[in-house]
Amino acid sequence: MNTLFTFDTFPQIETERFVLRAATDSDSGDLLALYSDETVVEYMPFTPFESEQDALDEMSWYKKIFNQQTGLRWMIEDKQSHQVIGTCGYLEYEEQHHRAEIGYDLLSSCWGKGVMTEVARAVLEFGFNQMQLNKIEAKVDPGNEASILLLHKLGFQQEGLLRQHEFEKGRYVDLAVFSKLQSDN
């Protein structure tokens, strides 16, 4: 039986290889390693991190969206190494409309190993079951082919293209909009 999620306690999820958990200050070094990699942040709306303070500020944002009940971001901890290798979670949570947007990132050294497929499946299951979401959205730079392949693998459908939707790194960028509905499961 699934328990309905409330924002009282940050949930922990376990998959075969990973623990998805709340961020702690001791994760700042791993998060700095993740977000200082130019290939990881290529399609993200910020420049590579330069200091541990950047990582602490990011984790502060994770706490803020949780406290405001607008999202939650899990740290992806490898069970064997206990290293944080990425993050995954929801933002733009709209309880009234049973909708949220999924986001994720991963150390480039872990790409192509099925990590995000395993993690995202668990996060989607949590969203549809515990959060009782009807729709989970994803917005992706059309050039981010790996992310688009992942979304298709997870059963997302492209809804459209938001032309020049955001201004990032000195230029306007399009965002491809994908979604998965509860009824798609």
UniProtKB/TrEMBL annotation:
PROSITE patterns: GNAT (PS51186)
SUPFAM superfamilies, per the entry: Acyl-CoA N-acyltransferases (Nat)
Gene3D superfamilies linked to this entry: 3.40.630.30
Pfam family, one: Acetyltransf_3
Domain of life: Bacteria
InterPro entries noted in UniProt: Acyl_CoA_acyltransferase (IPR016181), GNAT_dom (IPR000182), Ribosomal_N-acetyltransferase (IPR051908)
Domain N-acetyltransferase, chain residue ranges per copy: 18-174
Full protein name: GNAT family N-acetyltransferase
Natural source organism: Paenibacillus cucumis (ex Kampfer et al. 2016)
